[in-house]
Write a structure and sequence with these properties.
Layout (H helix, E strand, L loop, with lengths): L2 H5 L5 H10 L5 H14 L5 H11 L3 H8 L12 H11 L12
Helix pairs in contact: 4-6
Length: 103
């Protein structure tokens, strides 16, 4: 993650479970991005990351997909450093090592 992530408290198991539930989406494409994000980053997620991810989850499925695919930039209340960082982590398309593949 980043230096700011080191300053923020990590999510506990209960908060992580709630966040995963909150991130369930109606579009498979969004779910694929989100599952990959959790496979890579769940052990290092902080409260700040959770808040930023929650802000993204308030979007409609189509608006979220537009952001994930880079069709639209962040606008309005979402133009924040924490949301930008989480969006970049969500967009990370590097292949997962086979041990990290989502179930």
């Amino acid at each position: 993650m980043t230096d700011t992530a080191l300053q923020d408290p990590l999510l506990d198991e209960r908060a992580l479970s709630k966040l995963r539930w909150r991130c369930r989406r109606g579009l498979l494409e969004n779910d694929l991005f989100i599952e990959r994000f959790f496979a890579r980053h769940e052990s290092g997620l902080t409260v700040r990351h959770a808040e930023a991810l929650g802000a993204l989850m308030d979007l409609s499925d189509n608006d979220l997909l537009d952001l994930l695919l880079g069709r639209k930039p962040l606008q309005g209340d979402l133009e924040r450093a924490d949301v930008t960082q989480v969006l970049a982590l969500l967009r990370d398309l590097r292949p997962l090592p086979s041990s990290e593949e989502p179930a």
